Amino acid sequence: MTDMNSGSDRELLPTATPARTRAAVLELVRPHRGLAIFGFAVMIGATAIGLLTQPLLGHIVDLVASRSALDSLTAPVILLVAVAVVQGGATGLGLSLVARLGETVLARLRERFVGRALRLPLEQVEKAGSGDLTARVTGDVSQVAEAMRTALPELARSVLAIVLTMVALAVVDWRFLLAALLAVPFQAYTARWYVRKAVPLYARQRIAGGAQQQQLLESIGGAATVRAFRMEDEHLERVTERSQRAVDLTMRGVWLVLRFYSRLHVAEYIGLAAVLIAGFLMVRGGLVSIGTATAAALYFHGLFGPVNTALVLIDEAQSAAASLARLVGVIDQPELREPAPEATATPEEAVAVAGLGHAYEPGRPVLHGIDLSIGRGERVALVGASGAGKTTLARLIAGVHVPATGSVRFGARERVAMITQDVHVFAGSLADDLRLARPDATDAELREALTRVDALTWAETLPEGLDTIVGEGGHRLTATQVQQVALARLILTDPPIAVLDEATAEAGSAGARVLEKAIDQAIEGRTALIVAHRLSQAAATDRVVVMDDGRIVQIGHHNDLHTTDGPYAALWNTWTGHRPTDSSPDRH
User: Fold this and answer.
1) pLDDT for 533-567, tens place per residue?
2) What pLDDT digit, counting tens, does each position of 6-51 carry?
3) In this structure, is residue 7 part of a structural domain?
4) Contact call for residues 124 and 13 (beta carbons, < 8 A)
């Protein structure tokens, strides 16, 4: 694997080497060898039939030159029509078979890419930036798809036409083949020059496109923050810089293609001139007829289209190859591994954290030696100021990140599910969205899950009930409803351990109260770790863990902590707006 990051501070997802990319393509094609062989065999037959056109035209020229009877032209003209009909039908069949092969391989490539992308460690995706993965999912997949649908069939057709035409020239007269071959060194040099320039250029274009998309996502997604801190000019400068980089590389590609075409035309003129001169000399010497020389010239002229198409498709092929290498780079990433079987907590513990440390950047740790034990069925709240390390600890326990030091151990056969404030509603019916958590869930089980999170009432009032289309392009759900859907999925998934990272943060006060009740129902009977956005959530848990600067500074029950001088009491008083003497235990 190679890893190119265009000098940015992000660790972009890997890009496969050319050798590995070719091997991956062969792996995808191998199960469909029969279709590939049959499709190319039909293409060869269609091309061979089409090459009968030139000698038939040459024969007609000889008949006209010798002033033969008009009736003598009937047979070759009928044969020309028959050749056109048969070639057209065979070409259509061959192209459809090759296109079918391409679509089949493309579908398998997409499946493998999406399957592996969904299993990438989130920490790796975050380091690369969502723009990198988004660019691969959209731009690179589209580039490869377009190449599979258009470039592959046309390239196959063109290469076959070139090879068989050269064979036909040799059959007409070997001297015509030698004359035609004078163009080959110029064409080969042009192709080699172009590939050497195009491969790294298109790879840089793909990376620049990903960087541009990442910056757009960051600037638009954080528009409110950008405006609040008056950072519009800075972000505009970043967008302009990365966009200009992408435009510069695109224009370099256009200039490269123009130079490629100009060199290619010179090669064509050299070859055609050589064939015409050879034909003139051979006809004058009585070695061949005018019709034969005409057929040879038509053969070489017929090469213009296939040769130009093949060489021009190098442009698309190189761009597609760069995109394909980026897709294979993701496909080859190792899957997330389950925790080692021996790393288990004690029978009384659901989660055991020991000496846990983590850093997103070397030398800048965000957690320091965290030790924490969570008993089976216990509800624990994580509280602290912003930046205290709560979310990082929750993500480490949920398996989103791999700890830099220390360990996270679980009880036997424990599974962890995590819900954050950023919940995605997938496009489709509400029922299908819920069944993502349990595909075999019955309608009754879906309604039961919605009932437990107090969502069935509004779900049934949707235009088509649970069959209503939600997500992109569908019925828009409120922030509270989205979280209720996520909690219903949690109930359907039924994991022993649930991690909730500020699951009520996006809801208003009224929505937060609804969600707090829904959370109580969703985590009933489970071990739960709650990153509390509202301290009323902490008051309702079995234990409160207070964090500050990546360390645990207090642990205890709400009733004990909020009446004792310390960090939690300060947080509670700030949140409630009361003085310490006015505070009273609160349990919800």
Assistant:
1) 788 888 889 999 999 999 999 999 999 998 888 89
2) 434 567 788 888 888 888 888 888 888 888 889 888 888 888 888 8
3) no
4) yes
Of 435, 532, 546, residue with least CA distance to 493: 435
Would you state the pLDDT for residue 585?
A: 41
| Helical (H) or strand (E) element with 22 | helix 18-29
Distance CA 18, CA 424 (A): 36
Q: Is there a single domain that holds both residue 394 and residue 480?
A: yes
Say if 344 falls within a structural domain: no
| Number of domain units in the chain | 3
Q: Which residues form the domain of 453? A: 349-576
The answer, as to whether pTM is greater than 0.85, is: no
CB 215 within 8 A of CB 131: yes
Q: Are 267 and 134 in the same domain?
A: no
549 is a domain residue: yes
Backbone angles phi, psi at 343, to 5 degrees: -85, 75
What is the phi/psi pair of residue 368, to 5°? Answer: -130, 105
Neighbours of 69 (CB within 10 A): 8
Determine if residue 399 is left, alpha or beta; phi over 0 gives left, psi from -120 to 50 gives alpha, anything else beta.
Answer: left
Residues 6+ apart with CB under 8 A from 285: none
Task: Write the pLDDT tens digit of every residue in 282-329.
Answer: 888 888 888 888 888 888 888 877 877 777 776 677 778 888 888 888
- 516: CATH: 3.40.50.300
Cross-strand partners of 482:
none
Distance, in Å, from the CA atom of 451 to the CA atom of 320, rounded to the nearest integer, reads 50
